[in-house]
């Protein structure tokens, strides 16, 4: 009814030290109604997790050795971009916060970070333990000599320009606006 107070509740999801919590809050009463740890789900990734996960492979001896096979020993132009793993069926990995971490060489990247991927090399990291669980190296693939550009002005370097197109409707348009 108009003028009558009404219930206002909020639900918050919190992540602390790898543990996921749900809080139920009574906004009108300014009180915490409930607080539960959630053990069978994972929270969405935070920006801090994504940014820090990219640094983990750069400290792993297996990954460093795989990069050396590719002739890369200075990582200042290497950007590692974590990707979610998806559902995990291996019981040994249950409860871990996993990401696959492929990397790219940003030398000369300009407007295309993904232009020089470091192919066939992916680290799998666990955000909870802050460790690299595995490094998958399927062999060296030579990178492109130049980083491809997404700029229209550069497109002629990669393909021939299209031939002119002429659109005609000698009996009138089929479309009315």
UniProtKB/TrEMBL annotation:
Residues 150-177 are annotated as: Disordered. One of its GO terms (molecular function) is copper ion binding. The keyword Oxidoreductase applies. Its cofactor is Cu cation. Topaquinone (TPQ) is generated by copper-dependent autoxidation of a specific tyrosyl residue. InterPro entries: Cu_amine_oxidase, Cu_amine_oxidase_N-reg, Cu_amine_oxidase_N3. PANTHER family: AMINE OXIDASE (PTHR10638:SF41), COPPER AMINE OXIDASE (PTHR10638). This is Amine oxidase. It comes from Chiloscyllium punctatum.
